Amino acid sequence: MSNNSSSQPRFSAGADPAALEASLAPLLTSNGGRWALAAEGEALEREFKFKTFAKTWDFMTAVALQCKLKNHHPEWSNVFNTTFIRWTTHHPKGLSAKDVELAAICDSLAKDFGEVVVEQTQTQQQGAEQAQQLQQACGLSGLANRAAGSAGDCCVPKTAT
Ligand SMILES: C[C@H](O)[C@H](O)[C@H]1CNC2=NC(N)=NC(=O)C2=N1
Predict the structure, then answer these.
(1) Where are the coiled-coil regions (predicted)?
(2) CA 34 to CA 135: how far, in whole Å?
């Protein structure tokens, strides 16, 4: 899964595009939210920062509990006080209601766990986006890509034998 940015979401088969557009819109950076579309519109991703590793891990534990409840997993990585999270649906491929729902849940859990929000000027934001692209190979999204690449067919529905 690459993090090619994209301006248009690509929903997974069976999704309700109108309903999903409505819940997705406020999450996107283009509308004042904090998530970016990636992987040609098939994924939503962002980074979260906390004061300490302990807080970061507590946040990730809370997210993992939600994943268990919803039977949906993220592509994610962590180094020290930062976690990178990407939501995408592997089967059927694309953005689904679960991705959008879990992205919103992450925002709210991050607040509860004391997310450190670094406000950026427009110029800093553009610089950060360029740096993010450069970092892709070795940064947190690169780590998540490597994990996603070797995870195998995690989401193929099981067929009766
Ligand atoms: C077979 C089972 O329903 C699948 O593995 C579920 C579990 N979690 C999942 N998580 C994600 N991100 N995408 C999926 O397609 C998916 N499918």
Answers:
(1) none
(2) 19
Please choose from 11, 63, 85, 91 the residue to mutate so as to test ligand 1's pocket, defined by most ligand atoms within 8 A of CB.
Answer: 91
Q: How far is the centre of ligand 1, averaged over its atoms, from the C-alpha of 21 (Å)? A: 21
Q: What is the ipTM of this complex?
A: 0.94
Q: pLDDT per residue over 49-80, tens digit each?
A: 999 999 999 999 999 999 999 999 999 999 99
For a mutational test of ligand 1's pocket, the pick from 67, 70, 155, 159, i.e. the residue with the most ligand atoms closer than 8 A to its C-beta, is 155
From ligand 1's centre to the CA of 12, what distance in Å? 12
Question: Which atom of ligand 1 lies nearest, measured to the CA of 90?
Answer: 15
- Cβ neighbors of 82 (< 8 A, separation 6 or more) are 47, 48, 49, 50, 56, 140
Any idea what the CATH number is for the domain that residue 71 is in? 3.30.1360.20
Count of structural domains within the chain: 1
